[in-house]
UniProtKB/TrEMBL annotation:
Family the entry assigns: Belongs to the WSCD family.
Protein name: WSCD1 protein
Keywords attached to this entry: Repeat
All copies of domain WSC, residue ranges: 140-232, 243-340
Native species: Illadopsis cleaveri (blackcap illadopsis)
Length: 575
């Protein structure tokens, strides 16, 4: 009996091995067949594609091997080859937190390199039929033509906007019209530029051949080419929505003509008249002294630091009654200060690998906005956030270990992840504010607010219980394992922007001018200030939650002082 049972067991083992072998052979045969079919499709596409018109690939995208499918306007047979590889983020998430979806990093990198070789080996895809593209789909502006565009020396020198997913001609026109510009130009299918004078060098109409990301059938420029539209007829209705911001009453600088490049003397001068005049001249500041209007930027001569007593400017904010002596009224026009909007990747790999570390909801995106505009270099990210990439944070798609960015955003707090970096800026925010900001982001994105229903759900108490301890452990572990740290408190950065930002820039070993820092202050909010109805005196924290968070606050404060850093700001003190 035992001998029979042994033979049966031996037979079953052989059957199991045979099944495993057959399964492996079947999978290998299927993979080889798929690769063979792919090769045939590629060969057929290369033989059957016309060669009358070439669509070049933007340099910035080809550098990292990522090409947006919509920029390849001939969806021929070759596009059947793994187009989903285009949208894979170039990240190594081996050490990502548990709430992020893990992926096979090696397979992703191999697929990315393969597709980059494939697109570079084949001739560029064709764009026959692009001449038939519409220039007047759903928009009202006048099409002025196709012009050359140099990102380093822009021809439209006004505001700049990005939307690498939903850019349309109408969206760009409205954005420029609301900011008092006369022309709107689009490039690369997703970039919008504004200005008050046409570019000097015209290009061939067929060179503007890239379809808008958010509007099929419409042209949004090309590679180093601008599709330019006049928006004069849109400016009248847009004028109602323009936001002219009162900056305060300030002392008049010593030399007005050297400080302000443009001026106007007008009887019965009004704020609207001065703002309109300065907007046409593409200046972000309108300065009024009596019947005199001056236009310019915040500079060392006129830094807009401390204002004078508002009563000295008559308190009415009426232009004609403003003091004609040593004081003036200052207004922010709709025009964007563009002295600090140019950004690029590092030309050589950085020797220091710097992290911009924070707990989620602590203002990391805002800090990245400030750093990018102050230094002129992109920041990277340990993760990939499509919403941030679409709005102009181009370092999102650059591999976080490339060292082509000035610093790398991270929320990680493990020993291995921390020790990978040579130094770090540790950004800390009040945990009450951080928890609410992250909860808002989780349920309403970067710019919205969670609903009352979200706050009253059982998910909010669970969120606080799990995330409050993470807020504390994040700081404690960076203090323990960080090699070289600069601790920055969000509240201090918000209150004393230029001194703290200068400290951060020096830590990054970058030299910037005072005027560039003043430009950053002028654009301090960027496009990432939450909009919508914010509840006043809203208190979502129960006493039990406060007791828990307060214990963590005291622990972190003690740890900071133990490392000879300044303790937490007073407003962190238990409620």
């Amino acid at each position: 009996m035992a001998k029979t049972f042994f033979r049966l067991q031996k037979f079953l083992r052989r059957i199991q091995f045979l099944l495993f072998f057959l399964t492996a052979a079947y999978l290998m045969a299927g993979s080889l067949l798929l690769l063979q079919r792919t090769r045939l499709v590629i060969q057929q596409g290369s033989r059957g594609t016309p060669t009358n018109q070439v669509l070049p690939v933007p340099e910035e995208m080809s550098r990292v091997g990522i090409i947006e499918p919509r920029t390849l306007q001939s969806p021929g047979p070759r596009l059947l080859v793994r187009m989903d590889a285009l949208q894979e983020p170039a990240l190594d998430q081996q050490h990502s937190p548990h709430w992020l979806v893990s992926r096979n990093s090696e397979l992703r990198q191999l697929r990315r390199r393969w597709f980059h070789r494939f697109t570079s080996d084949q001739e560029p895809l064709q764009t026959a039929g692009f001449k038939a593209m519409k220039h007047t789909a759903e928009h009202k502006g006048t099409y002025m033509g196709c012009f050359t565009h140099d990102s380093r020396e822009r021809t439209l020198k006004g505001a700049v906007f990005y939307d690498l997913r939903k850019m349309t001609v109408a969206h760009c026109q409205e954005a420029c019209a609301e900011r008092a510009y006369s022309y709107a130009g689009l490039a690369y299918g997703a970039e919008c530029y504004c200005g008050n004078s046409l570019p000097a060098a015209a290009a061939k109409p067929e060179e503007c051949n890239i379809e808008c990301k958010g509007e099929k059938g419409s042209v949004c420029g090309g590679v180093n080419r601008l599709s330019v539209y006049g928006v004069e007829e849109l400016r009248a209705p847009a004028r109602r929505r323009r936001n002219v911001i009162y900056r305060g009453c300030f002392r008049v600088p010593e030399n007005l003509t050297d400080t302000f490049p443009a001026s106007l003397i007008q009887p019965n001068l009004t704020v609207e008249m001065c703002s309109e005049f300065c907007s046409k001249k593409e200046f972000p500041l309108a300065v009024i002294r009596g019947q005199e209007c001056y236009c310019g930027y915040p500079t060392r001569r006129f830094p807009l630091g401390e204002g004078t007593d508002g009563l000295r400017c008559s308190g009415t904010r009426n232009a004609s009654s403003a003091a004609a002596g040593q004081d003036c009224l200052v207004y922010q026009t709709p025009v964007q200060d563009t002295r600090c909007t140019d950004r690029k990747f590092l030309t050589t790999k950085s020797k220091m690998f710097v992290a911009l570390s924070s707990f989620p909801g602590a203002g990391n995106t805002w800090a990245r906005h400030l750093i990018e505009h102050a230094t002129g270099y992109y920041t990277g990210s340990y993760y990939f956030d499509g919403a941030l990439y679409n709005k102009g944070f181009k370092g999102e798609k650059d591999h976080w270990r490339s060292r082509r960015t000035i610093c790398v955003k991270t929320h990680e707090s493990g020993k291995t992840e921390i020790e990978m970096f040579d130094s770090a800026i540790l950004l800390i925010r009040n945990p009450y504010k951080s928890l609410m900001a992250e909860f808002n982001r989780k349920y309403a994105g970067h710019l919205g607010y969670a609903t009352d229903r979200n706050w009253r759900s059982k998910e909010w108490p669970d969120f606080v219980n799990s995330y409050a301890s993470w807020w504390a452990s994040h700081v404690l572990e960076w203090l323990k394992y960080g090699k070289r740290l600069l601790v920055v408190h969000y509240e201090d950065l918000k209150q004393s922007l230029i001194p703290k930002l200068k400290e951060m820039v020096e830590f990054l070993n970058v030299t910037v001018t005072e005027d560039r820092l003043l430009c950053v202050e002028n654009n301090r909010d960027g496009n990432f200030k939450r909009s919508g109805a914010k509840q006043k005196n809203f208190e979502p924290f129960t006493q039990e939650m406060k007791d828990l968070i307060n214990r963590y606050i005291l622990t972190v404060d003690e740890a900071l002082r133990g490392r000879n850093f300044s303790g937490l700001p007073r407003e962190y003190v238990p409620r």
